[in-house]
Design brief:
single chain, 732 residues, alpha/beta, six-stranded mixed beta sheet, 29 helices, elongated
C-alpha cells in the first residue's frame, strides 16, 4: 500500500520534483563521464608518456570525485528538505488521520528509492552517451587519431557511480527519518507563516556596515592587483585578502538587504506601484536566510567563474608557448650545485661541508663539468651521431660570491622577491657563446663592448626588475671590471627551458670577463636528423638510455652514496660526482608535459567548475521554490483582491530574478579582480592570461545558471497558479 501511495505521490508531484530530478541526473551524468576518462583514453593510440599522463589524470579525477560526492551529497540532502517542506500540509493530514511517523518514514523511503533509481538510470544512460565525446576531446588534446575508436563502456565508472550515489541516497533516507521523527502538526500547518527577524534596524548602522564592508573589499581588490607590490609578495600574502573578501561579502549582503528596503520604502511612488510592496516585503521577510545563502552562492559563483576561465585559457596559452619553449629538438644540462650555491647550498650533506671539503668536491665536480657532454654521449652510443643534425655546447658560469643583491640597485627588489633573489648567484654567459645560441634559436644577437653588459630573461617579475636596472644605467662592478648597460631593456630568452618562461636572469658579459669562474651549467642543445626512417620518439629513447636516465626527464642531485644507491645505477654508470644534476628535455617530452597539464587543467577545472555552478544554481532554485510554496496563500489572497495573473507572474519573476542576479553580480565583481590577479600570475610565465576564455565561461553560466533560473520561474509559477491550488485542495 505504501509503495503504491509513494508511486502515486511521485506521479502527481512530478513537476515539483523537476529541479530535484534534473539536478540528480546532471550529478550522475557528470560523475560517470569524468570517471570514465581512463576507459575512453584506452581505445586511443597513445605513446607511453601520454599513457602515464592519462593515468595521472584518472587518479586526480578519482580523488576529485570524492570531493564532488560530498558536494552533491550536501546538495541532495538540501533538496530533499525542500521536498519535505513542500509537503508540510500533506504530512499534517497524514498525522491527523492517524498515520504513524514510522509509516511516513517508509513512505519517504519508497519515494526516495524510486526517484534515486530513476535518476540513476537516466543519468547513467546520458553519461554513457556523453562519455563517448571524451575520447574525441582526449584525441584532440593529444593530437592522435581515432581510427580505432569503438563504443566504450566503463564498468568501473558505472559501479562507482552506483556505489557513491547509493550511499548518498541512504544518507538522505537517514536524514529524512530524523526530520519525520520531529514532525509536529501545528508546525506543519503554521511553518509557512513564519518570518525571520531582521537585524540592523537602524538605517545609519546599516549604511556604516555597508560602507566599511565595501571599503575593506575594495582595498582587498586593490591590493591583490597593485603593481607596486611585487607579484610574489601578493601570492605569499594572499590569505588575508581571501578572508577579508569572505567576511566583507557576508556583511555587504547583511547590510545591503536592509538598506535597500529602507531606500525602497522611502520612495513611495515606486514602493506602491503595482505589486512592488509585496515583492520587497517577501524579500525582507526571509532576509537572514537569504543573506547566508546568497553570500555562499556568490562565493561559489566566484570560484566557478575563476575555475572555468582558468581551465579554458590554459589550453590555448600553452599551445602558443610551445614553439617558444622548444626551439630545438633536445636539451641536456648539467648543473653543479656546489658552483651555483657554494656554502649556501641546502642540498643534502653539501651544506655541512667544511671549506677544504667544499674545495675538493668543487674541483672534482668541475673536472667532470669541463668534459664534452656531446662526446660523452657519442661514446656511449656512436649510432646517435647520424641522428643528430647539429648541436651546440655552451657553459653558463657561476660565482657563488656574486649575487643579485650586489648588482641590482636598492629599492628595485622588495619583500619576498628580495628574500629569494638577494642571495641568489648571478649566472653569467659569454657574449660569443650567447650569439651562437641566438643563431641556433633564431633570436637577435647581443653585441657588447668590452665594458658593457646585458640581461637575458623571460620571467616577467624579474624581467621588470632587470629593465629598471638597465634603464637607470646601473654599473656592475665585478672583480676588476666595471660594466655599463648596452641596452635599455633585457633580451627575451633563455638557455635551456622546461616548458614555461622561467628564466629569472642570466648576465651576458664580454668574453674577457669570464676567466676562471666555475661552470654552473653545461648545456648541450641538439636538433635531430629525421630524414631517415628513425622517429623523434626513437631518438628520444636512445638519448635517455645514453644518459642513463631511466625516467622520463630528470635524475636529480645525488647528495650521498646512500642516495646514489637509492637512485639506482644511473648515477654510478654516468660517473657523475655528488652535487652534479642532469636534466634532460626534448621537444616531445615538453609537449607531452604541456599537453598533460592542459588535459589535467581542462578536465579538473571543467569538472569542479560545473559542479560548483550546478550547486549554486540548484540551491537558489530550491530556496525560491520553497518560498513560492510557503506563499501560496498570499498569492491566492492577492488574486482575490483583484490582482491579475499577469501581475502575479511579473511579481514572481522580479522576486526570483533579484535572488538569482544579486549573488551573480557580486560573484562577477569578485571574479573580475580575481581574473586580473590570476592573469598577472599566468602572464609572468609567458601566457596570454585569461581574457580569451571569458566567452566560453559566459556561455556555461548562461546555459546552466540561466537554465535553472527559467526552470525555477516556470515551476514557481505553476505552484502559485489558481489551477494548482485547486488541485492541491482536491488532493487533500
Amino acid at each position: 500500500m505504501l509503495f503504491k501511495l509513494s508511486f502515486r505521490n511521485i506521479t502527481r508531484s512530478i513537476k515539483d520534483y523537476a529541479i530535484y530530478f534534473f539536478t540528480l541526473v546532471l550529478g550522475v551524468t557528470l560523475f560517470y563521464v569524468f570517471n570514465s576518462v581512463g576507459s575512453q583514453a584506452a581505445v586511443l593510440e597513445l605513446n607511453n608518456s601520454r599513457k602515464l599522463i592519462v593515468d595521472l589524470l584518472t587518479k586526480i579525477l578519482s580523488g576529485m570525485s570524492v570531493l564532488v560526492v560530498f558536494i552533491l551529497g550536501a546538495l541532495i540532502i538540501y533538496a530533499s528538505r525542500f521536498l519535505i517542506k513542500r509537503r508540510n500540509k500533506e504530512f499534517a493530514i497524514y498525522l491527523t488521520l492517524g498515520m504513524s511517523k514510522r509509516k511516513i518514514s517508509r513512505l519517504l523511503f519508497f519515494e526516495t528509492l524510486m526517484i534515486g533509481v530513476i535518476s540513476l538510470g537516466v543519468g547513467l544512460l546520458l553519461g554513457i552517451g556523453v562519455s563517448q565525446l571524451i575520447s574525441v576531446l582526449i584525441a584532440k588534446l593529444f593530437e592522435t587519431n581515432m581510427d580505432k575508436f569503438t563504443f566504450v563502456f566503463s564498468e568501473k565508472a558505472f559501479f562507482d557511480t552506483i556505489l557513491y550515489f547509493g550511499l548518498i541516497y541512504l544518507i538522505v533516507i537517514f536524514f529524512n527519518t530524523i526530520i519525520v521523527g520531529r514532525l509536529k502538526i501545528i508546525e506543519l500547518l503554521q511553518g509557512s507563516k513564519k518570518s525571520e527577524k531582521a537585524f540592523l534596524k537602524n538605517p545609519l548602522l546599516r549604511a556604516i556596515v555597508f560602507v566599511v564592508s565595501a571599503s575593506v573589499l575594495g582595498y582587498a581588490y586593490w591590493w591583490v592587483n597593485n603593481d607596486k607590490v611585487s607579484l610574489m609578495d601578493r601570492v605569499y600574502n594572499l590569505l588575508w585578502p581571501i578572508i577579508a573578501g569572505v567576511v566583507a561579502t557576508f556583511l555587504i549582503f547583511w547590510s545591503l538587504s536592509g538598506l535597500i528596503m529602507e531606500i525602497v520604502t522611502r520612495s513611495k511612488k515606486f514602493y506602491f506601484k503595482g505589486l512592488n510592496s509585496f515583492v520587497f516585503r517577501q524579500i525582507s521577510s526571509k532576509v537572514n536566510t537569504a543573506v547566508v545563502s546568497m553570500s555562499l552562492i556568490s562565493l561559489l559563483l566566484f570560484l566557478t567563474i575563476s575555475i572555468l576561465s582558468l581551465c579554458f585559457s590554459i589550453n590555448e596559452s600553452m599551445k602558443k608557448e610551445l614553439a617558444y619553449n622548444t626551439p630545438v629538438d633536445a636539451m641536456t644540462e648539467l648543473t653543479d650545485y656546489l658552483a651555483v650555491y657554494g656554502s649556501n647550498s641546502s642540498v643534502g650533506y653539501l651544506s655541512q661541508m667544511s671549506n677544504d671539503q667544499e674545495k675538493a668536491a668543487l674541483a672534482t665536480s668541475q673536472a667532470y663539468m669541463k668534459k664534452s657532454l656531446y662526446q660523452n654521449l657519442i661514446d656511449r652510443n656512436p649510432n646517435l651521431a647520424k641522428d643528430i643534425k647539429d648541436h651546440l655546447e655552451l657553459n653558463v658560469y657561476a660565482d657563488s660570491s656574486f649575487t643579485y643583491g650586489q648588482i641590482l640597485p636598492s629599492g628595485v627588489m622588495t619583500g619576498t622577491v628580495q628574500a629569494f633573489m638577494s642571495k641568489t648567484t648571478v649566472p653569467m654567459i659569454r657574449a660569443s657563446d650567447y650569439n651562437k645560441l641566438a643563431k641556433l634559436y633564431h633570436r637577435d644577437e647581443i653585441h657588447l663592448k668590452d665594458n658593457q653588459y646585458q640581461f637575458l630573461a623571460d620571467f616577467k617579475t624579474m624581467a621588470e626588475i632587470l629593465d629598471k636596472t638597465l634603464a637607470s644605467n646601473t654599473q656592475i662592478k665585478y672583480r676588476n671590471f666595471t660594466l655599463t648597460p648596452a641596452y635599455k631593456k633585457h633580451q627575451e630568452g633563455f638557455v635551456t627551458s622546461s616548458g614555461f618562461k622561467s628564466n629569472t636572469g642570466i648576465l651576458v658579459v664580454p668574453d674577457n670577463v669570464i676567466t676562471d669562474q666555475p661552470i654552473g651549467t653545461q648545456a648541450l642543445l641538439m636538433n635531430y636528423n629525421l630524414s631517415s626512417s628513425r622517429t623523434a620518439e626513437q631518438i628520444d629513447d636512445d638519448l635517455r638510455k645514453a644518459f642513463d636516465l631511466g625516467g622520463l626527464s630528470v635524475n636529480g642531485v645525488n647528495s650521498s652514496e646512500e642516495d646514489t644507491q637509492k637512485a639506482g645505477s644511473s648515477a654510478k654508470q654516468a660517473d657523475r660526482p655528488s652535487g652534479v644534476a642532469i636534466n634532460f628535455y626534448t621537444k616531445l617530452l615538453v609537449k607531452s608535459g604541456m599537453v598533460g597539464m592542459q588535459a589535467i587543467a581542462t578536465f579538473v577545472g571543467f569538472y569542479l567548475g560545473t559542479i560548483f555552478l550546478i550547486s549554486s544554481a540548484a540551491i537558489l532554485a530550491l530556496k525560491q521554490l520553497s518560498e513560492s510554496s510557503d506563499n501560496i496563500e498570499k498569492y491566492a489572497a492577492l488574486r482575490r483582491l483583484g490582482a491579475s495573473n499577469k501581475m502575479l507572474n511579473r511579481a514572481l519573476f522580479v522576486q526570483i530574478a533579484i535572488f538569482f542576479i544579486a549573488p551573480l553580480l557580486i560573484g562577477i565583481i569578485h571574479s573580475i579582480f580575481g581574473i586580473m590577479f590570476a592573469s598577472s600570475i599566468i602572464e609572468s610565465f609567458g601566457s596570454d592570461g585569461l581574457l580569451a576564455s571569458i566567452p566560453m565561461t559566459v556561455s556555461m553560466i548562461v546555459l546552466i545558471y540561466g537554465g535553472y533560473f527559467l526552470l525555477t520561474y516556470i515551476s514557481s509559477k505553476r505552484i502559485i497558479s489558481e489551477k494548482q491550488l485547486r488541485r492541491d485542495w482536491e488532493k487533500y
